[in-house]
Amino acid sequence: MTRRPPGRGSRLAGFLFFWVCLLGGLGQAAAIAWPTAAWVPPGLVLGQPSGGLQIVSLALLVLALQFATRVGQAMWRGWLFATAWLAGSFWWLFISMNTYGGLPAWLAALAVLALAGALALYYALAVGFLCAWAPLARSAQALMFAAAWTLAELARGQLFTGFPWGAGGYAQVDLMAPWAPLVGVYGMGFIAAILAYVLASVLTWAVHAALAWMRQPVRPVPVRNAGGVYVSTPPTARVQARHWSPFTVARGALAWLVVLLLVISCLGGGERWRGLGQAETAGTGPLRVWLLQGNIPQDQKFVPGTGVAQALEWYPRQMHEGIAAASARADGPQLIVAPETAVPLLPEQLGAAFWQPLLQPIAAQTGPQAAAVLTGLPLGSLETGYTNSTWGFTPAAARRALANAQSPEVHRYDKHHLVPFGEFIPPFFRWFTQMMNIPLGDFARGALPQAPWTWAGQRIAPNICYEDLFGEEIAAGFATAEGAPTVLVNLSNIAWFGDSIAIDQHLQISRLRALEFGRPMLRATNTGATAAIDHRGVVTQLLPRLERGRLEATVEGRSGLTPYAQWAARWGLMPLWVVCGALLLVIASLRHLGRRGGRTRRR
After folding, report:
1. CA count, 13 A, side-chain hemisphere, 357
2. Percentage of residues in the chain having pLDDT higher than 70
3. I want to staple 29 with a disulfide (CB 3.0 to 4.6 A). Which of 88, 159, 559, 602 is the partner?
């Protein structure tokens, strides 16, 4: 097959598809939570996800890949799309490095782009493999694209500690809600990739049909003998040679039936379908909570005279008010939750002058109307290692702590999945962290899993900050229905990222975790989003961001295990790795058969 030298038309097409990939990637980032109030397109809501926008954005990438003429060109387009998407998803890292870390703006921006570009290599390799080994059958191409894309998502989410922020499945928290308790966020991304491929194929067909109608047939796209890219010959050029065998018709009808069922399921499919994944869960009774939001400015949070003093005055006062309300009001709280590092100092740094006034009202509760307190704080020592932790005080635990201050018997949770550069420093990068004026260090990891905290008839499982990004790790606590948590609690402080879209994105992540496990998720944060989310992923109550206050809410605990909780607790994400890997290998191994069949039909 001869190759023509690049001409003006090919350069124009390259320029066009550059912008298609760039805008498509930014669209996928915006689909997780629409970021700007300056312009909100019809059908979208500020700070809310859009599953339709995510599918359309990914379809733009597929469209660009279908017109690629070389594997290298396809990899470049995939990398560009993914870099724009990821940089658009976590651009707010710039705020922490520049505003709070003191890095020059150009260096902070370069660091964000470098991280996005490095993570985008997973997707470039995925589309490169796909384009080199793609068969001719469109139905097989759709499955192969979804499998390759999902493998790239899994690699980004798990390799080198993982950083899956902005995964495409989070945009589907509303549109594909019925699928979450069945296949989880990565399975939802797989389904979205299939729909994106189908949409792109329809667009490609429409382009060819329009050009044919204008009597300007599209020149066949060259294909490498070793594999080639998707479209070997435009449909308008093959229409005369195509023979519609019964097998071909049946295969096409089956493929479109599957797509139709996917679309129907995403549009709702009725309450019975929407509740299918939750069928094995049941209520365990209400839990009344107060969720505290201190709104301590990040640049003051660890300053003794300002942020530390505010935290040590405001949070204990709110806890005391909650304890008083628990005994005085029928709707008083049973649980009071303060966010990550609400107590910003080590316990021994505070001493009895702080702990005794805090614990005495908790310990004094004796009746059935009692409240417990869950708060974030640093623990440990230089010898044993420091941990980002939570302490839970019931009345009995508070009495024991007052009796033995040196070794308090309280519920303790230690953060397991640490933040790179924030809570541990990756090898060879200490020079980078030393350039920032941020209190960074190497924390010790907590165990996995850790036993839930039993209180008020519930089993309460805390997680800290971006730990709720890793559903497969939360699933470790769901090994048995009898010991599984009934309520999930996230304690966060993302004030590092200012008043940015990170707040809204993190809320969508928590919503999806609630859906996957069929559990309510409580969020207590420093600056937002402090919220109560029910087991269906619906935000029932939300505190305004960047305001000091408390959220009084009631959630219903849930028992039982969703399908996702069952298989993820047993195998983690390995089933998705195996299924997607097997699809790639099987389809790639059959590509020669597909090509021989294609050549036979065209004779």
Report:
1. 10
2. 80
3. 88
**The two three-digit tokens of residue 591, written as one number:** 């590509």
The Cα 262–Cα 178 span in angstroms is: 11
340 annotated active-site: yes
- Number of neighbours of residue 267 by Cβ within 10 angstroms: 9
The arrangement of secondary structure in 282-571, i.e. its CATH architecture, is 4-Layer Sandwich (3.60)
Residues of the chain with CATH 3.60.110.10: 282-571
Question: Considering 21, 131, 266, 465, which one is annotated as catalytic?
Answer: 465
Strands 453-455 and 411-414, how do they pair? unpaired
Is residue 243 scored above 80 in pLDDT?
A: no
Q: What are phi and psi of 103, to 5 degrees?
A: -70, 145
Among 131, 266, 340, 467, the one annotated catalytic = 340
**Which pLDDT belongs to residue 133?**
82
With tokens 């382009």, the residue in question is 207
Classify strands 531-533 and 521-525 as parallel, antiparallel or unpaired: antiparallel
Q: In whole angstroms, what is the distance from residue 166 CA to residue 490 CA?
A: 18
State CA 434 to chain mean position distance: 29
Whether the bond between 116 and the residue before it is cis, its omega within 30 degrees of 0, is no
Helical packing angle, 138-158 and 574-589, nearest 10°: 140
Q: CA 342 → CA 413, 504, 571, distances in Å?
A: 15, 21, 35
Mean pLDDT of 526-534: 95
- Judge whether 496 and 298 are in contact, CB under 8 Å: yes
Active-site pick, 21, 266, 415, 473: 415
Active site residue 415: yes
The closest alpha carbon to 527, from 553, 552, 565, 493, belongs to: 493
